[in-house]
Amino acid sequence: MQRQIIDKIEQFDTIIIHRHVRPDPDAYGSQMGLQKLIQHNYPTKKVYAVGEHEPSLDFLGTPDVITDDVYEGALVIVTDTANTERVDDKRHTKGAVLIKIDHHPNDDVYGDIVWVDTTASSVSELIFDFFELGQRVKGWTLPTASARLLYAGIVGDTGRFRYPSATLKTFTAAGKLITYDFDREALYNGMYELERKVLQLQGYIYQNFTMDENGTGRMDITRGVLEQFNTTASEASLLVSSLGNVKGMKAWVMFIEEADSIRIRLRSKGPVINGLAKEFGGGGHPLASGASAANWDEANASYQRLQEICK
Ligand SMILES: [Mn+2]
Prior knowledge:
The protein is an alpha/beta fold. It has helices at 2-11, 25-41, 123-138, 144-157, 168-177, 184-208, 223-228, 233-237, 274-279, 296-310, and strands at residues 14-18, 46-49, 75-79, 97-102, 113-116, 210-211, 216-221, 251-257, 262-268, 283-285, 288-293.
């Protein structure tokens, strides 16, 4: 599989790398880490990393902006993205060949070549693995910029090596990556900024959520709240699961107000909620799904439905 991917990379002059919407450090790290790895070893190739610009990740890099014609005859690689729905920039199908590299369960098998390894802590870890193969068979070297990005991705997805997903392989990769000459402290500062904002918002959520007598929870994150905590809707989304820690909570919804709609993010510990998500034009898994509401009236209606489901 990885050999096939190396062949494709060598075959194409233009390579465009995508990742998921509402990016996190592993999305940026795997995408841009791979971009810089390829660019460094094949300087004549054109290698782009695309997707929406996320200001809170500027310490890692900024995405490239390209026109549609660049996709003609190009190789497209999508990293860290389980399903097509979550691919940032839907032009990913416009190239000649599509490759998926991911570590989430492979429910949506998209692409001509699929490399999914759910035992990996992060896709950044997989890209490091990929580099080592390239090193053995093609004599690749890893540029420091790439090492820095991959390290950030691993640190991000493992919660600084705290999660059980951090294996011997993860630590081995991280151990090799820190031998490159990048400023680890500056990197941690950037990540700390992200974590600090999220922790403050989490405190606010624990103080302001509501729960009815049946264990149906609700939390509204308005534009005002996002501004108050200087966070984005994507950062707030990371906290949906945190309400599961509340005693007696059975199922809950977090409404996150975006520019032109309200995201409905549903979680449950029993009652099946993806039917409700479908009713509101969304979908997902039985215990974790989402939809979107045009306004607060619609959002309120979805909460009422959730209350009925939990009765
Ligand atoms: Mn990831």
